[in-house]
Amino acid sequence: MFPLRLIIDICVRLRIHPNTLTFIGVLINFAAAWALALGKFVTAGVIMIIANIFDFIDGKVAHESQAVSAFGGFWDSVIDRFSDISLFIGLIFLYSDLRRTDYVMVTALAMMFAIMTSYTRARAESIIKKCKVGFMERPERIVLFMIGAFTNRMAAVMWVILVLSIFTVADRIILTYRELRETHEAIA
Amino acid sequence: MTRTPLSLPLRVLWNAFYWTYERATWQYDVMVVAILAFVWLTPPEWLKDPMASGAGPIGWLIDALK
């Protein structure tokens, strides 16, 4: 992809640190959240695309400028959570402004389970080898946010994110339970 | 304790719930199509969408069949 290649090359040449790119990405996502809060969905969608370009290139720039570090991975994961949560907060602001308590709750629950999706995997992988089950991961969530924004179907998107995030969290709990039980049985 | 194997519909439901498929598999593509169908075809009125209105494609179809 030529434009992305060009942006990556420019960032490497200008010696922009990948952690800085990650941070710029979250700032742009805050702007997207602000646009969502104002109900300007198409603007939010465009800003989300720009923010995700930064999210995409930071890893590539880190690789090409030989700046890959454990802290970079940690920083990226933490900043991703801020980006995710900010988009949900933007929508919660909008729905509360519209006095729609039902959708404030749907969005708040979707946010809770989206965070738990990441948490369950991170926590599980501290006690088992791998915990990569469940459909609703971050890329799916981001693409759904964009689809909801560009086609003005954010309510339906919130329902999808909520239900599939609940399933994903449940899947990760089930997998962790099974793996630990198998390990326990193998030892016994 | 021996477990009886699930029937096909139950197995499909279980596999959709307990998702172990990677991206770029046909199961993933089917799920994406199902999600997009729900998002785009469900009438916003049914979901009481605060920002969108109208019956949507399913609503138009129901109206046309009436």
Plain-language structure description:
The complex is a heterodimer of chains A (188) and B (66). Chain A contains seven helices and no strands. Chain A is 83% helix and 0% strand. Chain A is mainly alpha-helical. Chain A starts with a helix and ends with a helix. Chain B contains four helices and no strands. Chain B has helices at residues 8-17, 26-41, 44-47, 56-65. Chain B is elongated. Classes of the chains: A mainly alpha (188), B mainly alpha (66).
Shape of chain A: flat
| Greatest interface and its participating residue counts | A-B, 29 and 18 residues
* Overall average residue pLDDT of chain B: 89
Question: What's the Cα radius of gyration of chain A?
Answer: 18 Å
Q: Fraction of residues of chain A in helices? A: over 70%
Residue share in β-strands of chain A: under 5%
Note the main sheet of chain B.
Answer: none
SSE layout:
The complex is a heterodimer of chains A (188) and B (66).
Chain A: H1 2-13, H2 18-37, H3 41-64, H4 70-97, H5 101-124, H6 138-151, H7 154-187
Helix pairs in contact in A: 1-3, 2-3, 2-4, 3-6, 4-5, 5-7, 6-7
Chain B: H1 8-17, H2 26-41, H3 44-47, H4 56-65
